[in-house]
Amino acid sequence: MVAAMQSRTSPTPPARTGGRPRSATADAAILEATRQGLVELGWSKLTLGAVATRAGVAKTTLYRRWAGKSELVVDAVAELFDELELPDRGSLAADVEGVVLQFAALLGRPETKTALMAVVAESTTDGPLRERIRGSIVDRQKRLVLAGRKRAQDRGELPVEPDPSAAARTADLIFDVIAGAVVHRALVSAEPVDEEWARRFTLLLLGGLAAAAAQP
Amino acid sequence: MVAAMQSRTSPTPPARTGGRPRSATADAAILEATRQGLVELGWSKLTLGAVATRAGVAKTTLYRRWAGKSELVVDAVAELFDELELPDRGSLAADVEGVVLQFAALLGRPETKTALMAVVAESTTDGPLRERIRGSIVDRQKRLVLAGRKRAQDRGELPVEPDPSAAARTADLIFDVIAGAVVHRALVSAEPVDEEWARRFTLLLLGGLAAAAAQP
Amino acid sequence: MVAAMQSRTSPTPPARTGGRPRSATADAAILEATRQGLVELGWSKLTLGAVATRAGVAKTTLYRRWAGKSELVVDAVAELFDELELPDRGSLAADVEGVVLQFAALLGRPETKTALMAVVAESTTDGPLRERIRGSIVDRQKRLVLAGRKRAQDRGELPVEPDPSAAARTADLIFDVIAGAVVHRALVSAEPVDEEWARRFTLLLLGGLAAAAAQP
Amino acid sequence: MVAAMQSRTSPTPPARTGGRPRSATADAAILEATRQGLVELGWSKLTLGAVATRAGVAKTTLYRRWAGKSELVVDAVAELFDELELPDRGSLAADVEGVVLQFAALLGRPETKTALMAVVAESTTDGPLRERIRGSIVDRQKRLVLAGRKRAQDRGELPVEPDPSAAARTADLIFDVIAGAVVHRALVSAEPVDEEWARRFTLLLLGGLAAAAAQP
DNA sequence: CGCTAATCGAGACGGTACGTCGGGTCTTAGG
DNA sequence: CCTAAGACCCGACGTACCGTCTCGATTAGCG
After folding, report:
1. Which segments of chain C does DSSP mark as H helices, in order?
2. Greatest CA span in chain A, whole angstroms?
3. HSE-up of B35 (CA within 13 Å, CB side)?
4. How far apart are the C-alpha atoms of D72 and C2, rounded to whole Å?
5. Phi and psi of D122, rounded to 5°?
6. What are the residues whose beta carbons fall under 8 Å from the beta carbon of D15, sequence distance 6 or more?
7. Measuring from the CA of residue C66 to each C1', which nucleotide is nearest?
8. Distance (Å, rounded) from C-alpha C182 to C-alpha C187?
């Protein structure tokens, strides 16, 4: 899919007045250092001091931009999620299998694996963080579901749902099922998300969708 | 629901010899204090010192029994998960909806919500912890899937799968889909898991199962 | 008292070339802000950032003129010491008592009290600072001793010492005794320097001087 | 002089109850490390973290015992001041010269030089610290004045003052003059306190005392 | 019934990281 | 060239928890 059209990485709007402007390269170095730190240390041993050192940046520079570890990590992994695409594999089933495998590959990366559940755990007691996660990571991936449906409708594999709110509810349900099942398989059950599993899961999902469509 | 067949709450077998035995009440007080602390502070602000104080116990006593915060919290919330049951609601669909709502209610409790994701996050970089979670929480709930299928087969709603390994694979898939979707809906999307959602989800799941059964 | 013959308040000669000239009012504002800061915060809590803010000046401006906190404070309090005078009270004893009380009053001001000892402490490990203190504060007050002796000699209360180096040594001794005793009484013993103490001290000093003069 | 009969180095009474007792060796190591740090870094560059490291002790151990840098340094240098003695040199004048030179030698040590004025400067805005300095350092040295007077009276060099309050006032004055003059000469004027200066100063002091005694 | 040995509370210990503050320097845009 | 503004790197601050340790004081059960 195409790159995000709107940068999400302006952590705090800097109140445009006089003074030395914030270093743009520092931002990139910090986010990259954060991902490296996640890989090498894991979430719980990742310290902001270590990130700063690795990025060649002072701790204060870091705190000027982000409120804490969670916010920083959300921005750092969000960049990875934006790389997800929906390549055209010829059929709806193949497309779903493709996106499932792609998502699983992303969750297999150590920085994503260790970070995702941790920030979600934090967000259960931190409303603003929850909104940040939704805005930066979760909601941005719904585009994959919408694009997949659109393409299937163009192919004639799926009927066009006339009620837009029902369409949205269905898309949300599909998203929760796909993302939830893959995450649970990969991180909680800790079993491999391979082609065989993707095929079986897709069969279940599309079969279920057809059954649900037949019955309002 | 059946009683747990093996107590999981003997944290570290104490090498039975002479000397003063460990206080049994201390264990209960610590686990209860842990749950209270999770509610009031959340995972990341929960400290073992605070648990000890709240339980009226010395830190030493706590470290004698558990290796760290993760292990303690796993044991504390595992007790809650054992309360899940599968009441007979007359049909497979009703049973699934019931267990979905029950699971969602459990995830709505603050101590469960903040603890579950956190320990899973920790477990991504800690193998023994992952095993403890699976043994104490995850695998114990698969009994609900197995019991539900058995009951549906007894009712004649589902055919009996002759191949036991295929049956196990299907049970695992169902478990990942149910648990994953509910967790994602409740904690990540942060939308309510109400009766309407449970009905729509169950429709999708059972429809998918039927389609998958029709096609090897 | 006579005006200082040489301004000490051009902190760093600015290498006179073209360009915008330095603001003269800024200097005064900074020194005044420094004294206010000393009163309200004391030496150790006085920060250059706070001085700059209070003076309505950028930190850059401040660092362009002074090398650090010590140098700035020396200049700020030196202005106060220049206010000391030696009024003619009719006799040597009365003159000494007067200068003692005047000096004690100056040491009673919070900005002087906290700054003087602090910069002297710094100067024990900073040679250039020690010279700055001597040039700006200490040596400038020896004029009071010299003026007092001159006046006493004019009155015939003291003989004229023919050896100039011996005269200088005696003046130095007197200066150390007066300044040292008053500072010690006021800041270390933290007892009041009142008229009664001044009278007793002067009696001791002048008696000692007479005895010393009688014996080479 | 004899060793102090009562330890001043119990920084905070530890509230005798259960628990691990405080390490006695840690105290000594910290005070010694503080003095070393003063010598090598000076007051303003001395950090509590460096003291802790050098003493092989955790920072928390240090903060458990002392409220801050000033308090710690007062205790560290107080031990040095307790080493001052009043050796019997045969006459009052020789005794005074001896104690002046001994005091000057103490002030010549780098740890004392850099610390003394600094803590006094701090004490100008910190009442409890001022009391601590008086109790631990200043008042303890008045014993030298009292011992010197007693010895001179035993020798018949000084008359016995019948009024005890007048005797105390005189002792205080002498103390302020001696300590003040020596400190001012050594630290402010930064001139050597050698035998010649000590002789001249003692001549002035004793001459002044005699004159003051003659005139109530 | 008194030993013995592991437990208990309390709290100090050496560490590591925290988030903040201040010091000086540098980089803007504007006079 | 100066100025105000403010970001930059750096180092220290004082605090909080960690997990370990050292105490004196309890408890059992075994001898």
Report:
1. 24-41, 48-55, 59-65, 69-81, 92-108, 110-123, 127-133, 139-155, 164-183, 195-214
2. 63
3. 14
4. 45
5. -60, -40
6. none
7. E24
8. 8
Burial per residue of C5-36, b for 16 or more beta-carbon CB atoms within 10 angstroms, e otherwise: eeebeebeeeeeeeeeeeeeebbebbbebbbb
Q: Which of A123, A184, A211 sits opposite B180 (nearest CB)?
A: A184
Q: What is the distance in angstroms between the Cα of A211 and the nearest Cα belonging to chain B?
A: 5
Q: What per-residue confidence (pLDDT) applies to B19?
A: 81
Q: Closest residue of B to A39, CA-based?
A: B125
Mutate to test the interface with B, among A188, A200, A205, A206 (most CBs of B within 10 A): A188
Which nucleotide is nearest to D55 if distance is taken from CA to C1'? E14
User: Average per-residue pLDDT in chain B?
Assistant: 92
Phi and psi, residue D159, nearest 5°: -75, 160
A71 alpha-carbon distance from chain centroid: 14
Other C-beta atoms closer than 10 Å to the C-beta of A103 total: 21
Q: Which of C81, C107, C133 is nearest to C185 (CA)?
A: C107
Q: What percent of chain C has pLDDT over 90?
A: 85
Q: How far apart are CA D125 and CA A189, in angstroms?
A: 63
Give the torsion sign (CA, B62, B63, B69, B71).
negative
List the one residue out of A101, A103, A167, A172 whose CA is nearest residue A134. A172
User: Could you give the 3-state DSSP secondary structure of residue A67?
Assistant: coil
* Chain segment D33-88, per-residue pLDDT in tens: 999 999 999 999 999 999 999 999 999 999 999 999 999 999 999 999 999 999 99
SS (H, E, C) chain B: CCCCCCCCCCCCCCCCCCCCCCCHHHHHHHHHHHHHHHHHHCCCCCCHHHHHHHHCCCHHHHHHHCCCHHHHHHHHHHHHHCCCCCCCCCCHHHHHHHHHHHHHHHHHCHHHHHHHHHHHHHHCCCHHHHHHHHHHHHHHHHHHHHHHHHHHHHHCCCCCCCCHHHHHHHHHHHHHHHHHHHHHHHHHCCCCCCHHHHHHHHHHHHHHHHHHHHCC
Scanning the structure block, which residue is given the tokens 């200068």? Answer: C99
Residue B15 pLDDT: 54
> With b meaning 16 or more CB within 10 Å and e meaning fewer, what string describes D90-109?
eebbebbbbbbbbbbebbee
Q: Which two tokens stand for residue C202?
A: 């002067």
User: From the Cβ of D17, is strand F under 7 Å away?
Assistant: no
Q: What is the C-alpha separation between D148 and B204, in angstroms, rounded?
A: 102
Distance CA D146, CA D168 (A): 9
C119-138: buried (b, 16+ CB within 10 Å) or exposed (e) per residue? bbbbbbbbeebbebbeebbb
If we measure between CA atoms, which residue out of D145, D48, D47 comes closest to residue D100? Answer: D145
Which one, of D109, D205, D76, lies nearest residue D152 by Cα? D205
Entry pTM: 0.91
* CB of B60 within 7 Å of some strand F atom: yes
Cα torsion through A184, A190, A192, A198, rounded to 10:
-10
Angle at A160 between CA A158 and CA A164, to 5 degrees: 130
Decide: D70 and D126 in contact? Cβ < 8 Å.
Answer: yes
Give the C-alpha separation, D108 to C128, whole Å: 19
Instruction: Say which amino acid occupies B32.
Output: E
pLDDT of C68 > 90? The answer is: yes
H helices within D66-109, ranges in order? 69-81, 92-108
pLDDT digits (tens, 9 = 90+) for B1-38: 444 434 445 555 555 577 888 899 999 999 999 999 99
Buried b / exposed e over B161-179, threshold 16 CB at 10 Å, is beeeeeeeebbbbbbbbbb
